[in-house]
Amino acid sequence: MADALQHSAWFVRAVHAADLGILWYMLLVNSFFALLLVLAAPQLFAHWRFGSEDVLARSLTSSAVPRVSILVPAHNEAVTIVESLRALLTLQYPYFEVILVNDGSSDDTLARLIAAYDLYQVPPAVMRRLRTERVKAYYRSRTWTKLLVVDKHNGGKADSLNVGLDAARFPYVLACDADTLIEPDALLRLARPFLFDQKIAAVGGTIRVVNACTVREGRVVDARVDHRWLSGIQTVEYLRAFLFGRLGWNLLGGNLIISGAFGLFRRDFLTEILGYATSTVTEDFELIVRLQRHLREQASPAKVVFIPDPVAWTEVPTSVAVLGRQRERWHRGLISTMVAHRHVLFNPKYGATGLIAMPYFLFAELLAPVVEAAGLVITVLCTIAGVLSTRFAVAFFVAAYLFGTLLSLAAILMEEVSFHRYRRPSDTARLLWFAFIEPFGFRQLTIWFRLKAFWRYVQGYHSWGRMKREGFGATPPPVSPAPAAPPSR
Amino acid sequence: MVATADPSLMRMLTFALEQHRLPCTPYTSGTAVLEALLAMPRGGVPPVVLLDVDLPGVDGHAILERLGVERPDSALIVVLSSHADESVQVRSLLAGALDHLAKPFNVRVLMAKLRRWTAIARRSEAA
Amino acid sequence: MLSLDALAIALAIEGTLIAIALGGLVGLRMWLIVRARQVEAGVAALEPLLHRWLIDDVPVDAIVRALRGLPAHVAFRSVARLTTPYLTFERQQRLAPRLRHEPWVQRLLAGHDSLFWWRRFDAARLLSIVGDPADAPMVAALLADTRPAVRLVAIDAAARLGGALVDLELSTLPFRQDAVQQYQFAALARHPGAVVAALIPRLTPLEPPAQLVAWIDAAAFLAHPDVLWRVRDLALHPDAVVRLHVARALRRHAEPETVPVLLRLLGDDDWRVRAQAARALGALRAVSAAAPLSAAVRDRAWWVRYRAALALAQIGGEARAHLVTVAGGDDPLARDMAALVSGLSPAAVVEMSEV
What fold is seen in the domain C255-355? Predict the structure, then answer.
């Protein structure tokens, strides 16, 4: 049979063409990524020059900073909530408040909060602009003037964020997860773009992996790279995704993703677009897409920017099962958001978002697992069957994997040069090692999970007619598609 | 007592205090200094505390509030902060601070003030 | 087959470029490490001298000599790192003239019109530490730089010099973003006399409202009685945004004549003006405003109710009794707001009304 295939000229040509097409696709996507790297480099350089502590600290004293309301949705976080909240309340920033929204927790989260922070109930004197699940009560703290706790019926993370949005009294809101560890000067760093004469709609910062780091009193005191392969490879992924995946987009019309684990937004824009959508599983990605649409439609000069500073730390899955659920959920959210906003695609009315960002997400993110899987299958099978020459196999290997590894190396080196959070040479060595072994197993795993997302999306569409909402008690604390942007490369 | 997380500032203050022969106990975290203040024996000379607002663990304002509730008038606290505006100063003073100094502050003047306050504290304890 | 060759060439070229970039990054990292070590050594050498100078143990010459012995970039960074957080303006004024004509300073300042923004940035930064009035033209050019980071640091440099630059800064003030404006206010506050003199002619109804509000905010930041008189006279301006900024500014003007003006603004058509007027009345502890404020707690707009209730709590005494009355009254929204504010601790009231 293999002989027959080999001699069927039509089949051989078809396979060659397909494989070549796939190879060019990979080259183009990687080249785009290399372009993002090139665009990121001067920004990192500018940051290094300007970001030294003395200028930063002085430039953001007292009244020069935007006033921020920090929104923290929490569900069944009894074990860590008191500690995490204390870390938030002691951030180094002159004007902020913390609004913790208890999303109908079934454990004793609220009881612990009432005890630890001396909470007392206050009347619901809040302006309601968004439609949300019913709020049970508002609480203030006798010992911490900055704290407001909202207790509500379960409605999911997006719904909780909308409740927080209504309760916020400052013009800027920071959406973050209850278990995200925030650097003490994170808010000061996030406020830096405001000093650059820019109208800002949203700011995102770099999220790092906290597995294996030493944490004391809610702060990371020693950054380490995990020796276990799963979290280790994800550390490299996050570096690559944030360091130039996001930074490069600042110069290409703005980001389409600000992580839900840590993002600063202008509240009036969010209220105009009616807050977060409760019908999607990746509410942070969907929000930004809708926000960018709104900004273009209003011809607003406000930008969605990204700063390279490390600002928050989050935990990544350490087991394959949990990782699978997370990646599958991200990709499913990506699909549903792209479908929901499909008229932005290739639409010149939406500027760079419609002509560059959305097409990139369609071709280089959404379809990536399909193309890669097809390429892998075709190349391997056909090389074994002798239909393709080994030159093709080598070319495929180089285009698909070696390039990605080179880009990971660039990300690691850039991190070393600009931030140098991992002080020990052993950590850098580990990062390099994980960058090399990523294509041998991890990549294929993510491809598989993302392909499953297609299947599940189609299933969900047909069987239920709408996306089933996932309460965030079902899966581990949701980390947004932050690094899904280019984790595949 | 000196509480600040900034090592350079700590060095400057310890150096200046040593030169003026004033006793100095350094603390680098909010929780440590709060514990020490709460564990102080009642009666005795109230210590003068140079408290930086930006401390890890518990920040300066929270320490003031706690002390105001649990051990009022047990220590003479001088707040150091990088924020100079009026509302922050008023807040500290209303919360029980003896004085609020914005960084950068004049070290010689601070040392003179400290000597005065230590003298007052000793005299009030003797009375 | 041809396409495969083209692909291979493309791959090879890109691969080489990326590899070169990687090599460059490694080299850059090495170079940065060397420079950082030098700066650390410089800082370590300078810091004890600086501490001793701050208590007048050594003359300022010792510092000047020590800096002269270091390489230019090390001297610059050490001085920047140590003087900015720890030196009062007065001390800086004592150090600056001694350093201004040092050869290393001259070399770095020569970069003020360089094509590379980072050289201009360093020049501006250095000028903010050692500049003298003769450098005004250089600073003026940097204030108008194309690069926002350079402009920002130039604001600090302008703050050192005062004089004609104050006028320039005030003219550009309305066109900056909020955060930059605030930064500029803080810098301008170093020369209150000059700023007041330059602000007074600008605070007239003849100026365009968009620029007027920026100057009103500057006046509020300075909180100088002479300018605040003029701000008060703008309370009847036809533009609501101007009135709103006037109301906000008057919270810093603790004169008896301010209260009637604010009471009039408390009855303004625009809810934003009413809210700020309530806030200002609270900040001024205007006891005579207790009754109008308790009427304002029943206002239709949420923010007005909020500010009015906080103001009553801030004024205290009899005003608090008004709050309690409203809390037991018949208007549900006012009742809720009054109950909320009554339950707040004094520290919370201060914080929520200030911010």
Answer: Leucine-rich Repeat Variant (1.25.10)
